[in-house]
Amino acid sequence: MLGAVKPDSPGPCEFLSKSGSKVTFPSSPLNETKCEKHQEALKLFCQEDQSPICVVCDRSKEHRAHTVVPAEEAAQEYKGQIRSRLEMLKKEMEGIAALKLNGEITSEELLVLTHYERKKILSEFEKLHMFLEEKELLLLAQLEVLDKEILKRQDEFTTRLTQEISRLGTLISEMEGKCRQPASEFLQVRLCERFSLSVKGRNFQRDLRESNVTLDPDTAHPHLILSEDGKSVRWGPARQDVPDNFRRFDPVPCVLGCEGFTSGRHCWEVEVDGSSWAVGVARESVRRKGGVSLEPEEGIWAVGQLNPIQYVALTSPWTSLPPDRRPRKIRVALDYKGRQVAFFNAENNTEIFTFLAVDGMFWTVGVARESVRRKGHILFRPNTGVLGLQKYHHLCMALTSPSNTYVSLKNNNNEIGIYLDYELGQVSFYDLSNEELLFTFPPVSFNGERVFPYFCVFLSHIKLSPRG
User: What is the pLDDT of residue 71?
Assistant: First the structure.
């Protein structure tokens, strides 16, 4: 029985997908498939059984109630459905392929991003490591400087105490001796000493030119407040907003006068007040930044009050001044050619202290390792490569560690013999006037390093002796 193909009836594709069987259609008249039962051509197609049948089968009881269509018509119908489904599958495949391509592109982009982030992280951590290493080196260097400063302050403190003990001992001996003198001799000595001091002060102050000193604001520490006329200065609680130029002192609270001197004899007077101050002269080349020691070695000659009870001349080490030399008005006198700086009580014209810059003011002789430090602040010690003997004014000392060792140099003799035994690692100093041993450093090991004769000269004169 012939009929129309039902749109909702199962087609060959659904049949194939469900059963895995193959539906066979007659291909052509030349190659017609025959019914196995009736040996007739399979020219019809049963929709219910989903199989081709012959005309005899169509009339049979088995297919009589079934929907039967010509095989060609059924084939075209199903081929149309297959083509439609095929187009859908192709589009689906293209969509999946596009999705796959987009996924690959997105993955590549993400991989590029992760690669970039990885490089960025490595770079940032490398910078961080470098910063931390530099910070570590900086902090260690600062600690090293602090260690040296602590040792230096300790040496200065020990030296000051030793000197003060020595001075007091000498003063006690002199006073005990004077107490044993007859009255006439005792009074004569005092009169002579007083006259000598007065004459000395008058001689130094002769022909001094009074200088009109004005303070230079470009050199003043940020905490120092200058008056409008530049004639007074005081410490302020707040740091001022001033240009940080190379001439300005920081962190040491100092200020220079505007006018410098290159010749002549000059003086000026300063009124002081408070418990911590210093006045004097400084070289133009004095260090302005970082830690600056107020001492002649740094280019500063000054007297000052360190606290309510300590009044000193800022020598190296400091020289304590007696209580009667603490005036409120000080005359500073500079003899440029004579290389002297003196301080006087401007109220009674008495001398407070005089810095002498004659030969022998300051020198150091000895030996130094080739690796000795050449730049920056140097501590003269065996552990820094210097084994030396130093003289400052009347003081002579071996530069030992952790503090100096005082050496007795008789008759102020300045002819020193230096003897080096490299193999034994020993350095000795002799007074050549009497061939007396002054000092011998404990043996050290030079480890094959070259050792050189060493001289440090400041406002003094050294001449090598031809003596063998």
Answer: 84
